[in-house]
Task: structure prediction
Amino acid sequence: MTGLYIQNLELTSYRNYEHAELQFENKVNVIIGENAQGKTNLMEAIYVLSMAKSHRTSNDKELIRWDEDYAKIEGRVMKRNGDIPMQLVISKKGKKGKVNHIEQQKLSQYVGALNTIMFAPEDLNLVKGSPQVRRRFLDMEIGQVSAVYLYDLSLYQKILSQRNHFLKQLQSRKQTDRTMLDVLTDQLIEAAAKVVVKRLQFTAQLEKWAQPIHSGISRGLEELTLKYHTALEVSDPKDLSKIGNSYQESFSKLKEKEIERGVTLFGPHRDDVLFYVNGRDVQTYGSQGQQRTTALSLKLAEIDLIHEEIGEYPILLLDDVLSELDDYRQSHLLHTIQGRVQTFVTTTSVDGIDHETLHQAGMFRVENGALVK
Result:
Protein backbone atom coordinates (compact mmCIF):
# COMPACT_ATOMS: atom_id res chain seq x y z
CA MET A 1 0.00 0.00 0.00
CA THR A 2 1.24 3.48 -0.79
CA GLY A 3 -1.03 5.41 1.56
CA LEU A 4 -0.39 6.72 5.00
CA TYR A 5 -1.94 4.63 7.74
CA ILE A 6 -2.74 4.77 11.41
CA GLN A 7 -0.85 2.11 13.39
CA ASN A 8 -2.39 2.53 16.80
CA LEU A 9 -5.10 4.49 18.53
CA GLU A 10 -5.58 5.25 22.22
CA LEU A 11 -8.75 6.76 23.64
CA THR A 12 -9.19 8.22 27.10
CA SER A 13 -12.63 9.30 28.35
CA TYR A 14 -13.93 9.56 24.80
CA ARG A 15 -17.73 9.18 24.49
CA ASN A 16 -18.56 5.74 25.97
CA TYR A 17 -14.90 4.62 26.09
CA GLU A 18 -13.20 4.91 29.46
CA HIS A 19 -9.93 3.71 27.97
CA ALA A 20 -9.16 1.78 24.80
CA GLU A 21 -5.99 0.88 22.95
CA LEU A 22 -6.00 -0.60 19.45
CA GLN A 23 -3.35 -1.75 16.99
CA PHE A 24 -4.33 -1.62 13.34
CA GLU A 25 -2.96 -3.18 10.22
CA ASN A 26 -2.34 -1.34 6.99
CA LYS A 27 -5.28 -2.98 5.25
CA VAL A 28 -9.02 -3.29 5.86
CA ASN A 29 -10.02 -3.29 9.54
CA VAL A 30 -13.58 -4.38 10.29
CA ILE A 31 -15.27 -3.26 13.51
CA ILE A 32 -18.28 -5.44 14.31
CA GLY A 33 -20.89 -4.75 16.97
CA GLU A 34 -24.55 -4.25 17.66
CA ASN A 35 -25.95 -0.73 17.44
CA ALA A 36 -25.18 1.71 20.30
CA GLN A 37 -22.15 -0.25 21.52
CA GLY A 38 -19.52 2.24 20.34
CA LYS A 39 -18.61 1.28 16.75
CA THR A 40 -19.38 4.70 15.33
CA ASN A 41 -17.66 6.39 18.30
CA LEU A 42 -14.46 4.58 17.36
CA MET A 43 -14.71 5.74 13.74
CA GLU A 44 -15.56 9.24 14.88
CA ALA A 45 -12.46 9.26 17.11
CA ILE A 46 -10.19 8.59 14.10
CA TYR A 47 -12.00 11.33 12.17
CA VAL A 48 -11.71 13.80 15.07
CA LEU A 49 -7.98 12.98 15.46
CA SER A 50 -7.64 13.90 11.79
CA MET A 51 -10.00 16.88 11.42
CA ALA A 52 -10.15 18.27 14.99
CA LYS A 53 -13.94 18.22 14.68
CA SER A 54 -16.67 15.61 14.54
CA HIS A 55 -18.79 14.73 11.52
CA ARG A 56 -21.75 14.09 13.83
CA THR A 57 -21.91 17.05 16.20
CA SER A 58 -20.66 20.62 16.45
CA ASN A 59 -20.86 20.44 20.25
CA ASP A 60 -17.44 19.20 21.40
CA LYS A 61 -18.70 18.59 24.96
CA GLU A 62 -20.59 15.56 23.63
CA LEU A 63 -17.24 13.90 22.85
CA ILE A 64 -16.18 13.90 26.51
CA ARG A 65 -17.21 10.91 28.61
CA TRP A 66 -19.93 11.60 31.18
CA ASP A 67 -18.60 13.28 34.36
CA GLU A 68 -15.05 13.65 32.99
CA ASP A 69 -13.18 16.93 32.39
CA TYR A 70 -11.58 16.08 29.09
CA ALA A 71 -11.26 13.48 26.34
CA LYS A 72 -7.97 12.49 24.75
CA ILE A 73 -7.31 10.81 21.39
CA GLU A 74 -3.80 9.67 20.52
CA GLY A 75 -2.58 7.93 17.40
CA ARG A 76 0.60 7.01 15.59
CA VAL A 77 0.48 7.80 11.89
CA MET A 78 2.87 6.05 9.53
CA LYS A 79 3.92 8.08 6.50
CA ARG A 80 6.49 7.61 3.76
CA ASN A 81 9.00 9.79 5.59
CA GLY A 82 8.55 8.25 9.04
CA ASP A 83 5.99 7.96 11.79
CA ILE A 84 4.21 10.86 13.46
CA PRO A 85 2.57 10.73 16.90
CA MET A 86 -0.59 12.85 17.07
CA GLN A 87 -2.63 13.90 20.07
CA LEU A 88 -5.85 15.84 20.47
CA VAL A 89 -7.21 16.86 23.87
CA ILE A 90 -10.80 18.08 24.05
CA SER A 91 -11.81 19.91 27.21
CA LYS A 92 -14.54 22.33 28.25
CA LYS A 93 -12.11 25.15 27.40
CA GLY A 94 -11.50 23.99 23.84
CA LYS A 95 -9.13 21.76 21.87
CA LYS A 96 -5.37 21.41 21.81
CA GLY A 97 -3.57 19.44 19.12
CA LYS A 98 -0.02 18.10 19.05
CA VAL A 99 1.78 16.78 15.99
CA ASN A 100 5.08 15.03 16.63
CA HIS A 101 4.91 16.13 20.32
CA ILE A 102 4.73 19.81 19.28
CA GLU A 103 1.62 21.74 20.23
CA GLN A 104 0.11 23.50 17.22
CA GLN A 105 -0.79 27.14 17.78
CA LYS A 106 -3.87 26.88 15.58
CA LEU A 107 -6.08 23.93 14.73
CA SER A 108 -5.79 24.91 11.04
CA GLN A 109 -2.06 24.03 11.36
CA TYR A 110 -2.93 20.74 13.03
CA VAL A 111 -5.39 19.58 10.33
CA GLY A 112 -3.70 17.88 7.39
CA ALA A 113 -1.20 15.67 9.26
CA LEU A 114 -3.63 12.75 8.97
CA ASN A 115 -5.93 12.71 5.94
CA THR A 116 -9.20 10.81 6.20
CA ILE A 117 -12.35 10.38 4.17
CA MET A 118 -15.49 9.52 6.09
CA PHE A 119 -18.39 7.83 4.32
CA ALA A 120 -21.47 7.40 6.51
CA PRO A 121 -25.16 6.84 5.63
CA GLU A 122 -25.83 10.59 6.02
CA ASP A 123 -23.37 11.21 3.16
CA LEU A 124 -25.93 9.66 0.85
CA ASN A 125 -27.76 12.95 1.55
CA LEU A 126 -24.92 14.86 -0.04
CA VAL A 127 -26.84 14.99 -3.31
CA LYS A 128 -30.40 15.46 -2.07
CA GLY A 129 -29.65 17.38 1.13
CA SER A 130 -29.57 21.15 1.54
CA PRO A 131 -26.89 23.41 -0.04
CA GLN A 132 -25.45 23.80 3.47
CA VAL A 133 -24.56 20.06 3.47
CA ARG A 134 -22.63 20.46 0.20
CA ARG A 135 -20.86 23.64 1.32
CA ARG A 136 -19.75 21.86 4.48
CA PHE A 137 -18.52 18.94 2.36
CA LEU A 138 -16.43 21.34 0.23
CA ASP A 139 -15.04 23.17 3.26
CA MET A 140 -14.06 20.00 5.14
CA GLU A 141 -12.42 18.35 2.13
CA ILE A 142 -10.55 21.40 0.79
CA GLY A 143 -9.44 22.19 4.35
CA GLN A 144 -7.64 18.85 4.58
CA VAL A 145 -5.33 19.68 1.70
CA SER A 146 -5.08 23.45 2.12
CA ALA A 147 -4.40 25.21 5.42
CA VAL A 148 -4.56 28.52 3.52
CA TYR A 149 -8.16 27.76 2.54
CA LEU A 150 -9.12 27.19 6.19
CA TYR A 151 -7.56 30.54 7.06
CA ASP A 152 -9.36 32.38 4.21
CA LEU A 153 -12.67 30.71 5.05
CA SER A 154 -12.54 31.57 8.77
CA LEU A 155 -11.56 35.16 7.89
CA TYR A 156 -14.53 35.34 5.49
CA GLN A 157 -16.91 34.02 8.16
CA LYS A 158 -15.60 36.52 10.71
CA ILE A 159 -16.02 39.50 8.36
CA LEU A 160 -19.44 38.21 7.23
CA SER A 161 -20.64 38.17 10.81
CA GLN A 162 -19.33 41.74 11.41
CA ARG A 163 -20.94 42.94 8.17
CA ASN A 164 -24.30 41.34 9.03
CA HIS A 165 -24.17 42.97 12.46
CA PHE A 166 -23.48 46.36 10.89
CA LEU A 167 -26.26 45.91 8.28
CA LYS A 168 -28.70 45.21 11.13
CA GLN A 169 -27.62 48.48 12.78
CA LEU A 170 -28.15 50.39 9.55
CA GLN A 171 -31.53 48.69 9.12
CA SER A 172 -32.66 49.74 12.61
CA ARG A 173 -31.04 53.20 12.13
CA LYS A 174 -28.74 52.73 15.12
CA GLN A 175 -26.04 53.59 12.56
CA THR A 176 -26.36 56.04 9.71
CA ASP A 177 -22.77 56.37 8.46
CA ARG A 178 -22.24 53.93 5.62
CA THR A 179 -18.47 54.30 5.35
CA MET A 180 -17.89 51.33 7.63
CA LEU A 181 -20.13 49.19 5.39
CA ASP A 182 -17.91 49.94 2.39
CA VAL A 183 -14.79 49.01 4.37
CA LEU A 184 -16.35 45.70 5.48
CA THR A 185 -17.58 45.02 1.94
CA ASP A 186 -14.06 45.44 0.52
CA GLN A 187 -12.62 43.11 3.17
CA LEU A 188 -15.39 40.57 2.56
CA ILE A 189 -14.80 40.61 -1.20
CA GLU A 190 -11.08 39.95 -0.79
CA ALA A 191 -11.69 36.87 1.38
CA ALA A 192 -14.72 35.71 -0.68
CA ALA A 193 -12.78 35.74 -3.97
CA LYS A 194 -10.07 33.48 -2.49
CA VAL A 195 -12.65 31.04 -1.10
CA VAL A 196 -14.54 30.85 -4.41
CA VAL A 197 -11.40 30.38 -6.53
CA LYS A 198 -10.38 27.41 -4.38
CA ARG A 199 -13.89 25.92 -4.44
CA LEU A 200 -14.10 26.25 -8.24
CA GLN A 201 -10.71 24.57 -8.58
CA PHE A 202 -11.66 21.75 -6.21
CA THR A 203 -15.00 21.12 -7.97
CA ALA A 204 -13.21 20.77 -11.32
CA GLN A 205 -10.66 18.35 -9.81
CA LEU A 206 -13.38 16.33 -8.11
CA GLU A 207 -15.30 16.03 -11.39
CA LYS A 208 -12.16 14.78 -13.17
CA TRP A 209 -11.76 11.90 -10.67
CA ALA A 210 -15.47 11.17 -10.13
CA GLN A 211 -16.40 10.84 -13.82
CA PRO A 212 -14.61 7.54 -14.59
CA ILE A 213 -15.75 6.05 -11.24
CA HIS A 214 -19.38 6.98 -11.89
CA SER A 215 -19.14 5.62 -15.42
CA GLY A 216 -17.74 2.33 -14.02
CA ILE A 217 -20.49 1.93 -11.41
CA SER A 218 -23.21 2.75 -13.97
CA ARG A 219 -21.65 0.27 -16.46
CA GLY A 220 -20.84 3.12 -18.84
CA LEU A 221 -24.45 4.29 -19.14
CA GLU A 222 -24.12 7.55 -17.20
CA GLU A 223 -21.89 10.58 -17.33
CA LEU A 224 -21.55 12.68 -14.19
CA THR A 225 -20.82 16.41 -14.34
CA LEU A 226 -20.39 18.90 -11.49
CA LYS A 227 -21.10 22.61 -11.43
CA TYR A 228 -20.16 25.08 -8.71
CA HIS A 229 -23.25 27.26 -8.52
CA THR A 230 -22.73 30.90 -7.61
CA ALA A 231 -24.73 34.01 -8.46
CA LEU A 232 -21.44 35.49 -9.63
CA GLU A 233 -20.40 35.98 -13.24
CA VAL A 234 -17.27 33.82 -13.50
CA SER A 235 -15.48 33.96 -16.85
CA ASP A 236 -12.10 32.79 -15.55
CA PRO A 237 -12.23 30.62 -12.40
CA LYS A 238 -8.56 31.35 -11.61
CA ASP A 239 -8.64 35.13 -11.96
CA LEU A 240 -8.96 36.62 -8.46
CA SER A 241 -9.21 40.23 -9.60
CA LYS A 242 -12.01 39.48 -12.12
CA ILE A 243 -13.96 37.61 -9.45
CA GLY A 244 -13.34 40.50 -7.05
CA ASN A 245 -14.67 43.01 -9.62
CA SER A 246 -17.73 40.86 -10.22
CA TYR A 247 -18.41 40.85 -6.46
CA GLN A 248 -17.90 44.61 -6.30
CA GLU A 249 -20.57 45.15 -8.99
CA SER A 250 -23.05 42.82 -7.33
CA PHE A 251 -22.62 44.36 -3.88
CA SER A 252 -23.08 47.88 -5.17
CA LYS A 253 -26.30 46.80 -6.95
CA LEU A 254 -27.63 45.07 -3.81
CA LYS A 255 -26.52 47.66 -1.25
CA GLU A 256 -29.96 49.22 -0.60
CA LYS A 257 -31.67 45.83 -0.52
CA GLU A 258 -29.13 44.50 2.00
CA ILE A 259 -29.60 47.50 4.30
CA GLU A 260 -33.36 47.10 4.02
CA ARG A 261 -33.12 43.36 4.90
CA GLY A 262 -30.24 43.71 7.40
CA VAL A 263 -28.27 40.78 5.98
CA THR A 264 -25.57 39.91 3.40
CA LEU A 265 -27.45 38.51 0.42
CA PHE A 266 -24.52 37.31 -1.63
CA GLY A 267 -21.29 35.36 -1.33
CA PRO A 268 -19.80 31.89 -0.86
CA HIS A 269 -22.05 31.28 2.18
CA ARG A 270 -24.97 31.13 -0.30
CA ASP A 271 -23.32 29.02 -3.02
CA ASP A 272 -23.95 25.39 -3.92
CA VAL A 273 -22.63 22.46 -5.97
CA LEU A 274 -24.94 20.90 -8.55
CA PHE A 275 -24.63 17.36 -9.92
CA TYR A 276 -25.84 16.28 -13.34
CA VAL A 277 -26.17 12.78 -14.75
CA ASN A 278 -26.43 12.74 -18.54
CA GLY A 279 -27.22 16.47 -18.35
CA ARG A 280 -30.12 16.14 -15.88
CA ASP A 281 -30.02 17.52 -12.35
CA VAL A 282 -29.65 14.45 -10.09
CA GLN A 283 -31.07 16.22 -7.05
CA THR A 284 -34.39 16.91 -8.76
CA TYR A 285 -34.68 14.23 -11.43
CA GLY A 286 -32.32 11.44 -10.35
CA SER A 287 -33.56 8.13 -8.98
CA GLN A 288 -32.44 7.11 -5.50
CA GLY A 289 -29.95 4.73 -7.15
CA GLN A 290 -28.46 7.56 -9.23
CA GLN A 291 -28.22 9.80 -6.16
CA ARG A 292 -26.40 7.04 -4.26
CA THR A 293 -24.06 6.31 -7.15
CA THR A 294 -23.24 10.03 -7.37
CA ALA A 295 -22.49 10.25 -3.62
CA LEU A 296 -20.36 7.09 -3.75
CA SER A 297 -18.46 8.34 -6.83
CA LEU A 298 -17.69 11.66 -5.09
CA LYS A 299 -16.38 9.94 -1.97
CA LEU A 300 -14.20 7.51 -3.95
CA ALA A 301 -12.97 10.39 -6.14
CA GLU A 302 -11.62 12.10 -3.03
CA ILE A 303 -9.18 9.23 -2.52
CA ASP A 304 -7.46 10.03 -5.83
CA LEU A 305 -7.82 13.77 -5.39
CA ILE A 306 -6.06 13.76 -2.01
CA HIS A 307 -3.39 11.44 -3.42
CA GLU A 308 -2.84 13.91 -6.28
CA GLU A 309 -2.57 16.83 -3.84
CA ILE A 310 -0.33 15.35 -1.13
CA GLY A 311 1.28 12.31 -2.77
CA GLU A 312 -0.22 9.81 -0.31
CA TYR A 313 -3.57 8.04 -0.10
CA PRO A 314 -5.86 9.02 2.79
CA ILE A 315 -7.49 6.65 5.28
CA LEU A 316 -11.05 5.64 4.41
CA LEU A 317 -13.73 5.33 7.11
CA LEU A 318 -16.87 3.44 6.05
CA ASP A 319 -19.33 3.82 8.88
CA ASP A 320 -22.32 1.48 8.50
CA VAL A 321 -22.45 2.30 4.83
CA LEU A 322 -22.07 -1.17 3.29
CA SER A 323 -25.54 -2.22 4.46
CA GLU A 324 -26.96 0.86 2.69
CA LEU A 325 -25.55 -0.15 -0.71
CA ASP A 326 -26.76 -2.93 -2.99
CA ASP A 327 -24.40 -5.82 -3.79
CA TYR A 328 -23.18 -4.28 -7.04
CA ARG A 329 -22.25 -0.90 -5.54
CA GLN A 330 -20.84 -2.65 -2.47
CA SER A 331 -18.45 -4.81 -4.44
CA HIS A 332 -17.50 -1.86 -6.67
CA LEU A 333 -16.57 0.09 -3.55
CA LEU A 334 -14.55 -2.77 -2.02
CA HIS A 335 -12.82 -3.47 -5.32
CA THR A 336 -11.82 0.21 -5.69
CA ILE A 337 -10.12 0.36 -2.29
CA GLN A 338 -8.52 -3.08 -2.40
CA GLY A 339 -4.82 -2.94 -1.58
CA ARG A 340 -4.64 0.86 -1.91
CA VAL A 341 -6.06 2.47 1.18
CA GLN A 342 -6.15 1.63 4.87
CA THR A 343 -9.88 1.25 5.46
CA PHE A 344 -12.05 0.99 8.56
CA VAL A 345 -15.46 -0.60 8.15
CA THR A 346 -18.17 -0.73 10.82
CA THR A 347 -20.99 -3.21 10.47
CA THR A 348 -23.39 -5.20 12.64
CA SER A 349 -22.44 -8.34 10.71
CA VAL A 350 -20.22 -9.40 7.81
CA ASP A 351 -22.69 -12.09 6.78
CA GLY A 352 -23.73 -11.70 3.20
CA ILE A 353 -20.76 -9.50 2.26
CA ASP A 354 -18.74 -11.86 0.15
CA HIS A 355 -15.64 -10.07 -1.06
CA GLU A 356 -12.02 -11.14 -0.80
CA THR A 357 -11.11 -7.73 0.68
CA LEU A 358 -13.07 -8.64 3.83
CA HIS A 359 -11.67 -12.18 4.04
CA GLN A 360 -8.20 -10.72 4.60
CA ALA A 361 -9.38 -8.02 7.01
CA GLY A 362 -8.41 -7.45 10.64
CA MET A 363 -11.49 -8.01 12.84
CA PHE A 364 -12.48 -6.15 16.02
CA ARG A 365 -15.60 -6.66 18.08
CA VAL A 366 -17.11 -3.87 20.18
CA GLU A 367 -19.37 -4.48 23.16
CA ASN A 368 -20.51 -1.74 25.47
CA GLY A 369 -17.58 0.61 24.90
CA ALA A 370 -15.00 -2.17 25.18
CA LEU A 371 -13.11 -4.15 22.56
CA VAL A 372 -13.18 -7.91 22.49
CA LYS A 373 -10.84 -9.64 20.09
Notes: Residues 77 and 84 are 5 Å apart (CA to CA). The chain has eleven helices and 15 strands. The longest helix spans residues 179-217. The first strand starts at residue 5 and ends at 14.
